[in-house]
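Bit of a strange request maybe. I'm writing a small parser for structure token strings and I need a real example to test against, not something I typed by hand. Could someone generate the tokens for this chain?
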Amino acid sequence: DLIQIGGTAFDLFGSLESVMASAEEAYNKSRQKGINSYHIIGDDELERNYALLDNSVVEVIDKANFSVDYVLDSFLFDDEEKLVMNEAAPQLFDYDNKKLSVGSFVAVAQKLKIVDKFDKIIITKVLDNIKENKISHEIAINLSINSIEDNEFMKWLENILNENESIKNQLVFSITSYTAYLHKKTFVDFVKKVHTMGSKILLKRYRTD
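Reply from user aminoacidic:
Good idea to test on real output. This should exercise your parser:
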């Protein structure tokens, strides 16, 4: 028994963890075949996984069936007890109750053209949380570029912020610097609109050089 080989095709919508799990599954299947065997998880098997993931994303968004945690607490420099901001982090699970990475989930939602609906649900959940728990600090919400490029989404955003006049200044919409770089005009327009609406913008992972 000199060697056992397990391999997997690259999963376009997977995370590092899912790719490693797929490789491990392939290795275990090669061992089941016997000594000096191999098993490759090919595109056809991944296609079935893609279909299952698509179904999971659609179901989660249609039912708004997820909770939102609040992470990355930020405090005042001169008062470490004073919370000034944290970030909304949706907790997403597939049909088999396995946790989905937000990046993979958003990529699939973009592919299926339903990411704007996902962003709307998160914003609504955050606003409800602020009101129900009388939160006074700011909350960052990551938005998809597809959403902020969508005129219908922007009209919806303006309406819901106007409906929540007293707390809209607690919402901080977060965009990565890389996304802003790739979509400069859209980003500049979005910043102007959000400031006019009375909310704020956070540019994430910027470079200092």
